[in-house]
Hints:
123 residues; 2 domains; 3-stranded antiparallel sheet; 24% helix
Amino acid sequence: xxxxxxxxxxxxxxxxxxxxxxxxxxxxxxxxxxxxxxxxxxxxxxxxxxxxxxxxxxxxxxxxxxxxxxxxxxxxxxxxxxxxxxxxxxxxxxxxxxxxxxxxxxxxxxxxxxxxxxxxxxx
Length: 123
């Protein structure tokens, strides 16, 4: 299987605090991965690097073989943090339609995406 995420020798600091120290990780297409650890272990930092929200300070991060800082790569990525603050009554379809509109697309563009991932019943 192809690797969709490659992390090699990644180090990241916030001032004197070392968030990541030589992290290596490979995620293959179709794998389900959980990042577990205590507060401050670097989980959010790693996600930030993988999604291009943070710049790699040392090491290499690639998504589908591409630099996640590239705009073309970032357009293909999405992330939902642990707590996004959405109302519990909001439906998945409303969220996806809202994301389409914010991206400059018509709300109807959400329908094929919902169908592709098999969640039209949640819309």
